[in-house]
Each structure stands twice: as C-alpha cells, then as structure tokens.
Amino acid sequence: MELVCPAGGLPALRAAVDHGADAVYLSLRGATNARNFPGLNFDRKNIAQAVSYAHTGGAKVYMTLNMYPQPDRFEPCLEVIETAATQGLDALIVADLGLLRYAAAHFPGLPLHLSVQGSATTYAALNFYRERFGIRRAVLPRVLSLAQVAKVIDKTEVDIEVFGFGSLCVMVEGRCLLSSYATGESPNTQGACSPAHAVRWEETPKGREARLNGVLIDRFDPGEHAGYPVICKGRYLLGEEGQQIRYAIEEPTSLNTLDILPELLRIGVKAIKVEGRQRSPAYVAQVTQVMRAALDACHANPEHFKPRPEWMATLAAVGEGRSQTLGALHRSWQ
What we know:
Helix content: 25-40%
Order of helices and strands: EHEHEHEHEHEHEHEEEEEEHEHHE
Number of helices: 10
CATH topology of the largest domain: TIM Barrel
C-alpha cells in the first residue's frame, strides 16, 4: 500500500519525503483546493522545486483540484490542470465533472484521481468515472465500513485510496454546506471550511470564544485546548431548557487505522492517505515516520502485525481531540 502524505508547503513536503512518503499531495495557492488558507500551498515558481525534490527522493507528487468552481472561477482551475500536466506532476486529484472532462480531453497523458470531494461511494459511480474520464484511482469518503470498502474494491478496476490518519470529518465529503450556511463559503466552492477571514477569537469573562462570521461556535475555559473552529465540531446550548453545553454533531477526534492495516491490505486497498495539509512540518514528519514504519511491518508480516505502543503514543500526541477512532470503518452491522 502506498503512503500518501500532505504537503502544505516546501518544508512539509521535505519532511514527508525525508521520512518515507511514497507520494505527497499539494495544491496551488488560491480557491482551487479545499485547503485555501493564508500561508499554505504552492505558487507556480516553487512547484518545479517541489517536484524535483520529491522525485529525487523517490516520491510521487499529486496535485489537488478538489473543489467545484463557480462560473467566475472556472478559468483558474484550467490553469491548475495545465500546470499539473506541464510541470511533471504524477497525477491530478479532481472532484468536478467538468474539470475531469477538460483534463481528460486536453491532457490525456495526465493520470487522474477522483478526489474524496467527488463523494463517490459505490462501485457503479467509480466505474462511470473510469469509463468516461479514465480515472486510475479514487479516494473514498470517510463514511464507509470496512465491508463496504471491500465490496467497492471487488467490483471496480479503479485503485482505491482510503484515509489512514488525521482529522475525522463527520460529513460525506463533497456534500457539506455548514460553512457556507454561516459564511457563504465552503470547501466545495471557495476552498475553505471556516475561512480564516471569518474566524474571530475573543477573550471574555466567560472564557475564550470562537466565532465564525459572528456565530458563536465554542467557548473554552482557561488552559483548555482550543481547536480550529468549525461548525460541526462546535459546542452549543442544548436540551429542552437550552442549558447543556456539549457537542451537538461531532466531538473532535482523530481517525487512526493502524489496528486494521492488515485488513486494508487484504481487501486490496492501494494507498493510505494522511490528512493534514494545514498542519505543521513537524506533524507531517512525525506521522509519516510512524506510518512508514507501520506499513513496512504490515507488508513484511501482515498476519502477525500489531501496532507498537510508541507508534500509538506519537499519533495520539499529534491527533485532533482527546481520542482516536476507526470511524465508520468499524461498523460491524454493515
């Protein structure tokens, strides 16, 4: 199984390559990807440097174009496709049907991967994308059980990539409008869940408050860890009297698949993806190193593979929230 790691900038890319990533995924700056935050991503000047460093280190480079362009933003997306095709990138990760069609028609030699934002959860959908656009790989949304993933793999020739570690999204990727509801912008259209310009932190007598476009998302006690504010992971006044403050949709937690790597290998998963282009180079280095060691051990002896305590401790220290989970993958009833 290929290890695919995030690169929000050159330092993170170097960290991933140096610590054993088989591939890195990155984006051009601007609202053409789902991590459109200030200070992240690459410009056209340093893409060549990034590709050269990765290829010299034996790693592939995948470009993400994983949002749905509005009518006035279609042209910049075409420039991303051309950049990926002319700068030696190894694949383009795309969500939008129109962009897939354009890339397949104008750059037939450019390998295409279906983004998780494409929200394809059935083999029929994947086979459609393969027949029409020639996609070679698809990243599955984090809403399928292990048995469901196996059924998809069994009935498609598309290589399947699944998330192996990182922030867990409760939504079906590609179908979430919560951020858009509060700010008018979402990762599906403008490239950012909770865009930075709409986030405000305020120190109040009741605690540190996080607001999104004026909407109170959470309130933190002194010394309490405060994560980046997104609506689905906020705490709100609930109950009949509206007096209970608790997570309404999802408690922050991290996806960690170390326990089931042999199962993922057995059913034919081709790649394990680490979430976190918005995270630091130190995070990328630590997670890549652990996942590299774990995958090597799994490949060498899958029947006797067992995660080492030090691996789990390292991932727990850099994960989101206070717990780790297999998410939908562990559903025994599917």
